[in-house]
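Support request, please re-run this one:
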Amino acid sequence: MTQVTARPAPAKTPHMIDARRLGAIVAAGAVSVLLVVLYASMVPPAAAREATAACNGLRPTPVNPALGQLPVVAPDFTVTAHDGKQTKLSDFRGKVVLLNFWASWCGVCKSEKPSLDDMTRELSGKDFEVVTLASDREWDLVRKALPNGSPFRVFLDPPAGDDNLGQIATAWGIKAVPESFLIDRNGKVRHYFVNKRDWDSDVAETCLKSVIQE
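Re-run finished. Output below.
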């Protein structure tokens, strides 16, 4: 009688993976990809909501008399610096810009300047610029109003005729200074602020940073 010996099953090699285990790995990978896609689709709206909520704390005015309902593309203009060099608003495209209208004869503007100074020193750089237009006829008046200079850019916006406000300020629908506009990297006016603001406050910093970081 011949004895038959059963052959042992072949041992699994390190390269052999159970089909069920492979299926679980594939399913887990698919879920991970789906979560990443969902997260990516949610981030832009969340960032936009954060920017709106933060800037709403500064009490913006949603409609400007000349520009209409915001957001809207900022009208371009050309201004002159103290050295005679001309600059366009569109030259700052790619940066977030806080455009501030003021005048040397404006007492409220004077009280706003310290916070504007502090905020500019802290935030200005390759992604953010503070640009101010003074409704004055002569540079000497501007220099007297800023005896220690300023960290922000200053340009002259001379009034026409007997007007008090500069021609650009008037074209932008400004009735009194100070007033400010927050312009995003794409050149759109996002927010319009009537009267002065405490620009170095926590809420202002949150608003500005939320738009800078978009």
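The chain is about 35% helix and 20% strand. Residues 19-56 form the longest helix (38 residues).
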